[in-house]
Amino acid sequence: MAFLLRADWHSPGSALLRAADLHYGYRDAAGRERAFTLDGVSLEIPGGGFVGLLGPNGSGKTTLLKLLSGTVSPQRGAVTLDSQPLAGMSRRAIARRIAVVPQETHPTFDFTVLDMVLMGRHPHLGVLTLEGPADVSIAEEALAATGTAHLAGRAYMTLSGGEKQRVIIASALAQSPDVLLLDEPTASLDLGYQMEIATLLRRLNRERQVTQVLATHDLNLAAGLCDHLLLLRGGRVLAYGPTADVLTAANVQALYGVRAEVTFHAGAGHVMVVPLGANAE
Amino acid sequence: MSTRPLRTRLVLTIGGFGAVTLAVCLLAPLVGSTPISLSRAFSRTIPYADNVDAQIFFVARLPRVLTGALVGAALAAAGAVLQALFRNPLAAPETLGVSAGAALGAILAITFGADMRLGPLAPVPLASLVGALSAMSVVYLLASATRRALSTSVLLLAGVALNAFISAMILFVQYLADFTQTYRAVRWLIGDLDVGAFAPIAAALPLVLVAFAIFATLPGALNLLSLGPDAAAARGVDVARAQRLAFVSSSLATSAAVSLAGPVAFIGIIVPHLVRLVVGVDHRLVLPAAALFGAAFLIICDLIARTIISPVELPVGIVTAVIGGPFFLWLLVRRR
Q1: Closest residue to A102, CB basis, from B217, B224, B230
Q2: Is B141 in CB contact (< 8 Å) with chain A?
Q3: Burial track B126-149 (b if 16+ CB lie within 10 A, e otherwise)
Q4: pLDDT value at position B101?
Q5: How much is the ipTM here?
Q6: pLDDT class of A3 with cuts at 50, 70, 90
Q7: A91, A94, A169, A171: which to substitute to probe chain B, counting the most B Cβ within 10 Å?
Q8: CATH superfamily of B6-92+192-334
């Protein structure tokens, strides 16, 4: 398990991942910047935290995740990891600490599951170095942690949706990251697989202290997993705080224009959102 | 095989395909319409002027075999790189418009510039190299004009459009050409390894070596690029840089190969697919295997071309096209 633990995580008072005043706008055909997709977003994520990103379609969740992973640079503002700006780090250096799990992954070629997971070791290898026994054992550990060890020799393309997503999470874990960024990882999965992934993410957070940022449309998934929620609307932060404080009927109304009842569910052990209907206006 | 460590698999891959290629390189010059013996060809007791076996071996057949090795290796490896870059197993060196650019250059030289010479280089390979590199630059500029990362869809469509445009230019030049020139142009377009000397091979070699040196740095990134640019970036690949290197290196290899032997078709598709059946899909194995097996495969195709209706020696491009067309269709059907 050593590959997932870093002693310097919990240095008190300092956030692991910090975004300050992020602005990002896509350009139109004439090259002019259109209205900002992200318009001054700031947030701090402590090591070991589990933050949910909620917001309607087009609110900037995916853009924010791309900025947090450093794959896209903000036009204004900065993202820092342990106070170090991502803009000054190489892609390789960032990928050694931040891993991303997208909604779906479609390989062009017929890689095996072990191949896919070993690709997570890429940022740790030199340009001309091949993975060694240490990398293979890290990959095998990641497979075990996600309950996919028995699939190692299978072709990735032949797996079910839930198995694929667990393998992609294993591949991200093989990066030995401090931070896992997840972009709607359960969006295309049925209820059974959704619960399976949720259980896995909760375990990674609790047992291995993997810091996670989860963008999702599933309010109850976020309520069950995340200790903090960031609500995004029109590229701005509507609210950011502990889940119980932020996930309120008023905020659901403001975010989605949906009347909802938010109540504590004893069986689930967290608040649940029950949508009642669209705004009458 | 896939359970063994990668290092072992790489050694097995290079050893196995290397042995096959070496054997083919040594044996192929012995086969032909006139049987010769290796021991006689290398015999020191017979003066070269009297040694017909040595003359056939070194003048008629060895350059042809070495050309096959260089062109086959370059086109097969370039094909494997492009298939990962475009995330499409049916992409090929011909897709980029580079081959078409080479063809236009060659045909312009055949039609208008037969007397030009620049040092030791013959006008046709030189003009086709210039044509190939020009086409590569045009496609590259188009694809990188709009965004920081290369747009692979622009790259692909620009290649297709350029292919069509250049075909029209070639037909136009052909229309102005006389019978002899048209005949030579058609022969060039078929693709032939009969370069007749070692100098053209030596001239193409540096370009291929540069391309291969770049290929050697790419396989890890190509594995990840085949998952998509976002997934690759998230795992530490500098996507824009990797795409540029992949495009430029595969174009250089293609340019060198086509200027040497003409547009030999389908090698860049057939060989990577055959190789994947043996070594799997990891580019760290596919690239060296494709380069080595590409060399052997093209030499064998040429062997067939030289002997199938002996004593007439066909250009190898006919053989690869006859094999490649049905093979492509089989791939298309097999892919669901």
Answers
A1: B230
A2: no
A3: bbbbbbbbbbbebbbebbbeeeeb
A4: 94
A5: 0.86
A6: very low
A7: A91
A8: ABC transporter involved in vitamin B12 uptake, BtuC (1.10.3470.10)
